[in-house]
Amino acid sequence: MTDDSKNKSANDGYGSHHRCNFCGKAASKVKRLFAGYEAFICNECVTLCHDILVTSPEIGDVQQTFDVPRPAEIKAFLDKYVIGQEYAKRNVAVAVYNHYRRINALADKKENGRLERDNDDIELEKSNILLIGPTGTGKTLIARTLARYLKVPFSIADATVLTEAGYVGEDVENILVRLYQASNYNQAMTERGIIYIDELDKIARTEANPSITRDVSGEGVQQGLLKILEGTVSNIPPKGGRKHPEQSFVPINTSNILFICGGAFDGLEKIVARRAGKKQVGFDAENLDINQDTPEILSYVEPSDLLEYGLIPEMIGRLPVVAPLQPLDRNALFSILTEPKNALVKQYVHLFKMEGIRLTFETEALWEAVAIAERKKTGARALRSIFEKAMLDLMFEVPSREDIEEIVITPGVITGEGRPKLINKSQRKTA
Predict the structure, then answer these.
(1) Helix-strand-coil percent breakdown of the chain, rounded to 5?
(2) Stated pTM of the model
């Protein structure tokens, strides 16, 4: 039976005078016409009503308070997933604690009717966070882990695809649309979520002096982000703006949304070294013996360095908390493989355990992976690509075999020059 005949049979019994009481279409013009008590509704209006129910903001208390973990508790949770970066984790833990304590304080004021009167007129400002460090050092992981621990909505935005409104690319407001969708279209939850803006360094001004041509993906994006970072009411289209022009807008107040921005800022170390490494005159002057290759060079970053790099002054002012991340050394890379709750080695062991096989790694094999990762200079990201390549043949063959009980990964497996040790069930019984 064809679709047309199905639709016809579905509407049998409804004459041409029967119409949808919502849109007015006749029964012959729609696929289905549902009858109710002295009323009819077509399938198109049912779909539209469903979309409205899904995308409409849920009623909730925007200022709802919740228990805020102490900075030490936040850092302890980050320690389970992020290896090293002690200074950055402490910095972020304090900033996040103060941010959500600020939200609770505002909620208490509204609940008790003590808004800006008597002596209680101190206004706490929002402190967004800027994470600076080489690729693969844990910037995105810190932001994602924070959101998981605090149980708040979280979304990631890539600054490289953003453009000024009206140009080809994504509008700045799309950042809020993603967070709104991540909160299951709950307006109250959205307004206390976390947004991580990655690759912020890629939207730096190309030149220090203004150009006669518009920098729509650089300085223009920075200008567009200013109000959202500081706090404003932005009307967003729940499904995204350009493909669904018929949808109603939802107002989102960004005053309590925590923005965490991150970027590698490649070349910033040269700017810092040029400034901080200069010999200063005077008895109290601090002469720093540093250069661009000093591991902790980013710890000396100051606003003037970010300005010279290409961030506009207004953007720097809205990111008051700067948390530098250091490059990962050999020991840190080795720890990343084994210590975190979601360590790469633990993930592979669990994957093979689901196949009924015990997987073990020789220590020398792990150190071989660390050595390769160091040469790639992409931090912890290199480790996954190394293991994916090394384990590909095993993960292809093992599900088809039932005679293997244990697999031992040797250094040759990591380098691609050898095979793993396979222990069969029959060999184990013989032993």
Answers:
(1) 45, 15, 40
(2) 0.74
